[in-house]
Design a protein that fits this description.
By secondary structure, this protein is α/β, with parallel strands linked by helices. The protein contains 31 helices and 29 strands. The strands form seven sheets. Strands 16, 17, 18, 19, 20, 21 and 22 form a seven-stranded mixed sheet that branches. It has a six-stranded parallel sheet with strand order 2-1-3-4-5-13. Strands 25-24-26-27-28 form a five-stranded parallel sheet, with helices on both faces. The longest helix is centred in the middle third of the chain and has 62 residues.
Length: about 900
């Protein structure tokens, strides 16, 4: 017995091992063919296909191949068509055996059973239909099993009557196809016995237009039971969903139906079989048959029906969900306010609760505060009294400041006019006298000093006005060619004495990369450099101040970025102060250093911004500071940047063949109109003078000048009013009127041009400016006197400190004092002494003296001394010791 049991165990084990799947062999794919009654694009077929594929892959692990065929026997009826379909399917799947064939609909099942012997005879069938096949039909071939939809016409009608108890008529819509007739026949059978309760009318096989008309005229207290209707004509086929859509659009009574696919298309609802549950059942049956089960061993199942409704139709017909049978499915429900805005409502409640808590806390705090209200009100009254007093003081101080500021601006404007007006005469007559070829050289040198001094004074006036422009935001950039090396040397030399007075070293280093001649605003660059060096000297008590100038490549070939660094060994700037040192009236450091206005760095930053540059500071308390400035500039030609010889093309008269030009000068300052008249008469113009605005109008009426030089500030009638009156007279529009003024404010320029002036000229003016303006407006042509050409920059070698190093110190002292005193006689005598000792140095000094370049001469002398003093310490260009 034991031997027998052992033998049985061994056989079972071997059998199990033999039946294990080989890991190297792939599991064959299951093949399933699905036959559809309608076409591919019918929504119910699309829904069935997507749900079935998901269900079969979930129910049958492993590869599954699903094939779909669409018989469309509703469009192509007849025996011949069925035979054609049979032959087509037999040839198509002759070499590809199907494991399961699914018949989705009774027409597909009838087709398969009709040709069972010749089409898929050895393949089991899974069907989904409204009618169960006969036993012998189901057992033919490899067998058939599936699900049968329950006919729910009676249940659906009872449900409709429950929801609409006052119904008196029922209209049943069906068609005449085989499928439709089966449904109608079953419906008639199920609705037997209802005649004594209500009238039942069948609307069968009506044309669509007639059906729509009948539906539109149905009486109240009626309902429609929509079975299925397909309209097939020789011209076209109207599918059931299209028929239902037409019925829904025309009906004024509720519609009920038997299929879940119609829920959402206008029917209220009904007892229907759900596609979701049916495809799961079909997928399970298909898996079992594909795995080898026999169809005859699997009983046919009845598809359960459930009450299903469209939420929108329930709302339309006023049916509450409480009246629906238990287990009802309501689709297309719109979310309630709570469902849609639950998170928002919860958040609002939380906020409300928090606000309530805050309000409660505030109420408690308020009660506590009321206990000391009287005391607080008294204190408040005291504070308000103090505030009123302080406010009155501040308002008074503000008004005084505003008045002072206005007075300052008015003062600057008047002072500018009063200073520039005599300067116009000084510079004009000086230039006029310098043109005299018979003028002795000694007088020419003296007048050149007067001319340079006047130009310097004019520059000082312009700088004062720049301060006012900064306050009004009216600063402008005046681009001009400049010798950058000379500009830096001049600025550093200017502050050398201040450095020496504090025993500080003041050094400057100009990189070889730095271009010598550039186009920028010379006055603003000079002011920036002067302010930074002066600021460094102010806050440095020992050590030195170093100025470095370098260049960086620009975006275009003709440009350069000028880099200026001013570094000191002073007290430094704390990090918290670095952000505000550029604000107006701000000074940092000890009290001993707080002298001045505190505007230097503010003006510096304003100028740098106007030039399109940047300024930054690096500093630490007790370790000194370094200011870094970057300014864009364009490289200029040497000849362009060198000072031009004054009035190189002297006008000696007018070219022949021109009109006899009449020019009217309107000026109340005698020295100014004398200067202008001398310019014009020397050139050949006919000139008359009017000393106030009224005379100007009278002279124009009587003399009809071609051109008027009009001062803006005139007695009796202002220049602006006089110009307006002249423009209104006969020929007043043809005359050219140019304003002459000592004001430098742009607002006045706009004012005079809008008043009818043709142009605008500021005092002090140059002779060339006068004649160029008249040439622009009248087209005047001049005759010029020949003048010697200006020597090129490269013709003379520059004066270097090494050239003066061979001279005695006493001779250098004498030369420095003569240059500082601008004594041309002493300068000439010293140069003669230098030439006796060193001819080359004497020649270079004489060239500078002839060009009146006394600043360059002074720099060379001091640089020579600095180089000698710094010898052995590695310093260069040492200007203070």
């Amino acid at each position: 017995m034991r031997v027998l049991l052992q033998l049985i165990r061994t056989v079972v084990l071997i059998s199990a091992v033999l039946h294990l799947p080989s890991p190297g062999l792939a599991q064959p794919a299951r093949r399933i063919l699905v036959l559809y009654w309608y076409g591919r694009d019918v929504p119910s077929n699309v829904e069935f296909d997507s749900r079935f594929q998901a269900a079969i892959r979930s129910a049958a692990p492993g590869p599954v191949e699903i094939y779909s065929e669409y018989l469309e026997t509703n469009k192509f009826p007849g025996e011949n068509q069925r035979v054609v379909l049979r032959d087509y399917l037999r040839r198509k799947y002759a070499d590809r055996r199907m494991d399961v064939v699914i018949a989705n609909g009774h027409a597909c099942l009838d087709f398969l059973l009709e040709f069972r012997g010749t089409l898929f005879s050895d393949t089991p069938i899974v069907f989904s239909t409204i009618k169960k096949p006969a036993f012998d039909e189901a057992a033919s071939g490899a067998g058939a099993t599936g699900i049968v939809y329950m006919q729910s016409q009676r249940a659906t009608l009872d449900l409709a009557l429950t929801l609409h108890p006052d119904t008196r008529q029922v209209f049943v819509i069906s068609g005449t196809t085989a499928h439709d007739k089966q449904l109608e026949s079953e419906t008639r059978r199920q609705l037997e016995g209802y005649e004594h309760r209500l009238a039942v009318t069948y609307l069968t096989d009506l044309p669509l237009a007639e059906l729509v008309t009948r539906v539109r005229t149905l009486p109240q207290r009626s309902i429609i039971l929509y079975l299925w209707q397909q309209m097939v004509t020789e011209q076209s086929t109207v599918e059931s969903p299209e028929v239902l859509a037409a019925v829904v659009n025309s009906a004024r009574v509720p519609i009920y139906g038997l299929t879940s696919s119609n829920v959402g298309r206008g029917i209220v609802g009904g007892y229907v079989a759900t596609v979701e549950r049916n495809v799961v059942t079909l997928a399970d049956l298909s898996r079992r048959l594909a795995d080898g089960a026999r169809a005859v061993d699997i009983p046919v199942q009845t598809a359960p029906v459930v009450p299903m409704f469209d939420w929108h139709q329930l709302q339309r017909w006023g049916i509450s969900e409480g009246r629906l049978p238990p287990g009802s499915i309501v689709r297309f429900r719109e979310p309630t306010m709570w469902q849609q805005y639950r998170s928002t409502i919860v958040a609002a409640l939380v906020v409300f609760a928090f606000q309530a808590f805050l309000i409660g806390a505030l109420l408690i705090q308020r009660r506590r505060a009321q206990r000391s209200r009287v005391e607080l009100e008294q204190y408040k009254a005291h504070l308000e009294s103090l505030v009123r007093e302080r406010t009155a003081e501040l308002v008074e101080a503000r008004d005084q400041a505003v008045a002072a500021n206005q007075s300052k601006s008015t003062f600057l404007a008047h002072m500018s006019h009063e200073l520039r007006t005599p300067l116009n005469a000084i510079l004009g007559f000086t230039g006029l006298v310098l043109r005299d070829q018979a003028l002795p050289e000694k007088h020419r040198q003296d007048l050149a000093i007067v001319d340079r001094s006047g130009e310097h004074l004019l520059g000082l006036i312009d700088e004062v006005l720049d301060m006012a422009k900064i306050e009004t935001g009216a600063g402008v950039v005046d681009i001009a060619p400049v010798d950058l090396h000379d500009l830096v040397n001049d600025a550093v030399t200017l502050l050398g004495e201040r450095a020496r007075s504090k025993n500080l070293g003041l050094l400057h280093d100009i990189s070889s990369r730095t271009p010598r001649f550039v186009r920028t605003d010379p006055r603003k660059v000079r002011q920036v450099l002067t302010n930074l060096v002066a600021n460094a000297l102010k806050y440095t008590d020992e050590g030195k101040v170093v100025v470095r100038v370098d260049a960086s490549p620009a975006e275009h070939a003709s440009g350069a970025g000028i880099l200026i660094e001013v570094e000191d060994t002073g007290v430094g700037i704390a990090p918290e102060d670095q952000a505000r040192i550029f604000d107006p009236f701000v000074q940092v450091g000890g009290a001993q250093s707080r002298h001045g206005t505190g505007l230097g760095l503010s003006i510096t930053r304003h100028f740098v911004n106007l030039l399109g540059g940047t300024i930054a500071v690096e500093s630490a308390a007790g370790r000194g500071s370094k200011f870094c400035v970057t300014i864009p500039a364009e490289i200029a030609d040497a000849a362009e940047a060198m000072p031009a010889v004054a009035d190189t093309e002297q006008i000696v008269g007018l070219e022949p063949g021109q009109p006899d030009y009449r020019v009217l000068i309107v000026e109340d300052q005698k020295e100014n109109w004398l200067l202008l008249r001398s310019f014009l008469e020397a050139a050949g113009f006919h000139v008359q003078v009017a000393e106030d605005g009224r005379q100007a109008v009278e002279r124009f009426s009587s003399w009809r000048p071609h051109f008027i030089w009009m001062d803006v500030r005139l007695p009796v009638i202002s220049g602006i009013e006089a110009a307006k009156q002249i423009r209104r007279l006969q020929d007043g529009q043809e005359v050219k009127i140019v304003a002459v003024t000592a004001s430098v404010f742009a607002s006045q320029r706009d004012e005079v041009l809008s008043a009818g002036f043709d142009d605008f000229l500021r005092k002090p003016y140059r002779q060339k400016e006068i004649f160029d303006c008249m040439a622009r407006h009248l087209g005047v042509r001049y005759r010029y006197a020949a003048t010697p050409s200006v020597p090129a920059v490269a013709d003379s070698a520059p004066l270097l400190p090494e050239d003066l190093a061979v001279l005695p110190g006493t001779l250098l002292d004498e030369l420095e004092q003569a240059v500082i005193a601008l004594d041309s006689t002493r300068i000439s005598q010293v140069i003669a002494g230098v030439s006796e000792r060193h001819a080359s140095a004497g020649g270079k000094l004489q060239r500078l003296a002839d060009e009146l370049a006394y600043s360059s001469m002074l720099r060379s002398v001091r640089s020579c001394r600095t180089a000698a003093a710094a010898n052995g310490r590695g310093a260069r260009n040492y200007l203070a010791s």
